[in-house]
Amino acid sequence: MSLTASLAKSIIGEPEVVEDDRVTQPLVEDGRPVEQQPAWLALKEAATALQQLQAQDGSVPDPADHPAARTLAATIAAAIRTLAPLFPHDETYLAASIVDIEQWADGGFGVPDFLASLVAFQPQQHRVDGLAHLVVFPMYTQNGSRSRFVEAVLCEVIWPEFVAELEHTYTNGLFVSLRLIDFTPGYDTNSAVLFPETVAMREVPTFTWGAIFQDREAARFRRVVAAASDITKLEVPAGTARMLADQRLTEEVFVMWDLIHDRSHMRGDLPFDPFMIKQRMPFFLYSLEELRCDLTAFRACVALGDGEGEIADRARLVQQAVIFDRIFRFAITGSRVRNYDGLGGQLLFAWLHQHGVLHWTDTQLAFDWNEVPAAVIALSDAIDRLYWESIDRPKVAHWLAAYDLVRSVVTPHPASQWARGLPDDVLAGAPKGYTDAVLDDEFPLSMFFEALEKKMRDVIAGTEGITGRDA
Questions:
Q1: pLDDT tier for residue 266 given thresholds of 50, 70 and 90
Q2: I need a labelling partner for 392 at 20 to 30 A (CA). Which of 78, 117, 290, 468 fits?
Q3: Mapping DSSP to helix (H, G, I), strand (E, B) and coil, where does residue 367 land?
Q4: Distance CA 257, CA 255 (A)
Q5: Sequence-separated (6 or more) residues with CB below 8 Å from residue 30
Q6: For the chain, how are helix, strand and coil distributed in percent, rounded to 5?
């Protein structure tokens, strides 16, 4: 099947993996890579300039700015036309993106609507290692800008053979793994995802893919874990030492981890749909759901790691990556305002410490590695049990039970209403009263993490905008 036919099929049928021998990075006649081409540089410059004229919703509200905006939009469209032959697998999408840009300009730069080009973009149909994409959308970037500015990204697929083999068992046809090549300011941030729901559009279609920039995840992991292990005097296991020395290896580990994590959100004994439905709920519920999926990946990799070959090797490394990324990066990254990933890291650390497999003694961190898998799986079992029991509970009763699980491991803030017991008027009222009673920092950092955060603050700040090329 041709790539064009495959793309047509992807819009109406099931995902498939397309394999070919395309070069890993497109080149033009002068031999320079695409990120050095004048058309890309012009596109990047024009998109960045256009952002200065856009409001948060993506519109260009001041008519006085429209002449300049038209010039910039025309530059972007012309650059896409020039670059499009380098991306034949994205021919339909790039043609649609030009139409969307020109219609936005012709319509007076109101709130942009790039639904047509978003529907045409189907990267999950082309999971070929090294295959490049040019992506241009008005969108916000998670952990980056909350404004729907026009952003442009050059990226390439990470899809080694062992992942293609693994995906036959851990099927996840929506998952796309990417490496950043170059980008506009929305991705010169901590954002490591490309999600269709962030794009400005008039209606929400059925989403068929989600992408993660594993090179950024791997680069952050390597820099943070190297510094944290030095500060805590941790003797990292041999597998982690390999990851700290090898960016490409670490990228592959994160692809495997995220492939299994991503599919876990909709699998298992779930109260209903605990994470994906857009609803306001206490942030510790998100902590447990994200941690549940990570621990599901950990559990799977314990089984996969009992053998030989690339899958077994990477599975053993995933286990170490989950632990060190969670306790060294997640726990102390970001603000303390409803930081659900931070709480997940705190919870994993405290659980391992309280189960006697993690030790902070004489200002040195150590693990009993032979005992770690059983302890991690026990935490996974506890969260799974909570979910299984909550199938029969009202929503707020599930919230209270989840809180009890978290506070049995991590100490709440002394001023917490939840820890003291919510008053009857809140318990008898609407769910909003429950969420309003949760403190922004309901579970503050322990003394260990307070001290570690101060020593690691500059290191973590220095990972903003990092890519695999920086590692």
A1: confident
A2: 290
A3: strand
A4: 5
A5: none
A6: 55, 10, 35
d(CA 15, CA 162): 19
Q: Which two tokens stand for residue 317?
A: 């490394």
One-letter identity of residue 330:
F
pLDDT of residue 145: 87
State the pLDDT at residue 233: 98
Per-residue pLDDT, averaged over 204-216, amounts to 95
| Structure confidence by residue, pLDDT tens digits, 360-382 | 999 999 999 999 999 999 999 99
8 A C-beta contact, residue 139 and residue 113:
no
Torsion of CA 252, 277, 269, 377, to 10 degrees: 40
Alpha-carbon gap, residue 368 to 359, rounded angstroms:
8
pLDDT tier for residue 273 given thresholds of 50, 70 and 90: low
Map out the domains of the chain as residue ranges. 3-208, 216-461
Distance CA 152, CA 298 (A): 34
Q: Using alpha carbons only, what angle is made at residue 396 by residues 430 and 444, rounded to the nearest 5 degrees?
A: 100
- In sign, the C-alpha dihedral spanning 237, 243, 249, 252 is positive
- State phi, psi for 360 to the nearest 5 degrees: -120, 90
pTM assigned to the model: 0.91
Q: What is the pLDDT of residue 220?
A: 98
Q: How far apart are CA 240 and CA 371, in angstroms?
A: 17
Q: How far apart are CA 354 and CA 2, in angstroms?
A: 56
The residue written with tokens 């300009």 in the block is: 105
CA atoms within 13 A on the CB side of 373: 16
pLDDT tens track for 395-432: 999 999 999 999 999 999 999 999 999 999 999 999 99
Q: What is the mean pLDDT of residues 30-41?
A: 90
Residue 47, pLDDT > 90, answer yes
Cα angle value 308/19/250 (rounded, 5°): 45
Confirm if 189 and 143 have CB atoms less than 8 A apart.
Answer: yes
DSSP E strands, 38-99? none
